[in-house]
Amino acid sequence: MKRPIAIAAIALAIVGLIGLRAVISGHRALADGDDWMLRGKPAEAIRSYETAARWYVPLAPHVDAAYAKLRALATGPNALLAWRAIRSAARATRSLWQPHAADLADADAQIAKLEAGATPEAWFAGRLAEDPRPSIAMAVLAGLGIVLWLVGAGLVVFRRWSVRAGAVIVLGVVVWLVGLYNA
User: Fold this and answer.
1) Looking at the structure, do residues 61 and 121 belong to the same domain, yes or no?
2) How confident is the model over 92-108, as pLDDT tens digits?
């Protein structure tokens, strides 16, 4: 009974340390952006604010502050750079959900408008809407396959080889391959 609690405590501590590092690094990148703005270098500030937004942790204040600063810079000569930074940060932080989905949609619309020139805006909007990343469902399926494979391997290591352990390993590998192939 004590062993699972210790493992859970260690896992929670590791996740907490990773989250703490992300928050500290995000605040540092936000401060770097503010320093660049004081020096009159908005392009470098935009890069720093994008970095701060990419250090995403749910409910971390530096993320919303970074998006707000990027939106403030999304006018004038640096508008396209700022909107691209917003788009990049929003896309980089997608996991099972899409944080800052509204910012991503706004960035796609503004980039399409700014890039349109002689080309129809709808063409740019269509290109920006394409998502070349793997689907979330297939990534979860591939992850489930890995978990099944590890469970089967654990049965072999901690118990002994059995038909059930072999079946779990084979099922895990098949599910993993299906998830990868369709991702």
Assistant:
1) yes
2) 888 878 888 899 889 98
Cβ neighbours of residue 100 closer than 8 Å, sequence gap 6 or more: 53, 63, 67, 86, 89, 90, 93
Question: 162 and 79: one domain?
Answer: no
Q: Indicate the Cα dihedral angle 60, 62, 67, 70, nearest 10°.
A: -170
**Is 171 found in the same domain as 122?**
no
Which value, in Å, is the radius of gyration of the alpha carbons in the chain?
Answer: 22
Q: Domain range holding 102?
A: 2-129
Q: Which backbone phi and psi does 178 adopt, to 5 degrees?
A: -65, -45
First vs last C-alpha separation in the chain? 39
Using DSSP's 3-state secondary structure scheme, residue 94 falls into coil
DSSP 8-state secondary structure symbol assigned to residue 119: S
For 29-71, how does the pLDDT look when each residue is reduced to its tens digit (9 = 90+)?
Answer: 999 999 999 999 999 999 999 999 999 998 899 999 999 999 9
Angle between helices 42-54 and 61-72 (to 10 degrees): 150
Q: How many residues does the chain have?
A: 183
Measured at the CA of 164, the angle between CA 162 and CA 167, to 5 degrees, comes to 110
What letter represents residue 86's amino acid? I
CB 69 within 8 A of CB 50: no
